[in-house]
Design goal:
Elements lengths: L1 H7 L3 E4 L2 H4 L10 E4 L30 H11 L4 E7 L4 H11 L2 E9 L13 E9 L12 E3 L16 H10 L6 E4 L6 H8 L3 E6 L2 H11 L3
Parallel strand pairs: 1-8, 2-3, 2-7, 4-6, 7-8
Antiparallel strand pairs: 3-5, 4-5
């Protein structure tokens, strides 16, 4: 009945280090991983008019966690599933080597055209990347999808996190998985955008976030008690 379905889809939110908290999740129980990990850039937003100017991105100083993280992601997902990781040129080679080491097949590298450029002095970036990793078979529902996707980036005035991703691109990636994943994990939950997308699509969400402030923001946005 409706109450039972609601209980089954209740989000599971965990505060703490994802490498530790992921150990609490049963092997093969996560249908899809969709996450925006740290890029290892030691980033501090500098846009003078920006909402997050000078707010250093926490835990973004290295990529030492990559190999262990991708091994855990692979353990948690079943055969014939997909995992998707936002990335950029700073971290994509490390992500790919870690994913291959874990057992994933690199299915694709999607270019996300954000429609507006970011900071920088050389060919200012107008895009980010999404690494598509499969464990066995995976195809999209739609035919003839392009490897460049166009979704307007979050304007800093509306964002609650400095690297917040728009809900519609997250919904796009969930919807396109041909096997209709029910349980979605985001080990770097941030302000909870993946959880909001899951709620909109009637999927079960598991989210992990280290920062207490963003964990509380995510909990409020997703509507989890």
């Amino acid at each position: 009945d409706e109450q039972r379905e609601k209980e089954q889809l209740k989000p599971w939110l965990m505060q703490g280090d994802c490498l530790e908290r992921m150990k609490e999740i049963e092997s093969g129980s996560v249908d899809m991983i969709l996450t925006d990990p740290p890029y290892g850039m030691d980033l501090t937003p500098q846009r003078s008019s920006g909402k997050f100017k000078g707010e250093k991105i926490k835990n973004d100083g290295s990529l030492d966690w990559c190999y262990a993280f991708f091994l855990e992601c692979y353990r948690l997902t079943p055969k014939n599933s997909v995992s998707m990781f936002f990335c950029n040129h700073h971290c994509v080679s490390e992500f790919i080597s870690s994913a291959k080491n874990a057992g994933y097949t690199i299915k694709n590298l999607i270019v996300w055209d954000k429609g507006d450029f970011g900071m920088g002095g050389n060919w200012r970036p107008v895009h980010e990347l999404v690494l598509i990793c499969s464990k066995g078979r995976f195809v999209c529902k739609s035919n003839n999808l392009r490897s460049i996707v166009n979704f307007k980036k979050m304007h800093h005035s509306k964002a609650v996190h400095p690297t917040e991703k728009p809900i519609n691109i997250l919904e796009h990636f969930i919807i396109e998985a041909d096997y209709d994943p029910v349980t979605i994990l985001d080990p770097f939950m941030g302000s909870g955008s993946t959880g909001v997308a899951c709620k909109n699509l009637n999927r079960k969400f598991i989210g992990i976030e280290l920062d207490e402030n963003y964990f509380n923001i995510a909990r409020d946005r997703i509507g989890a008690s």
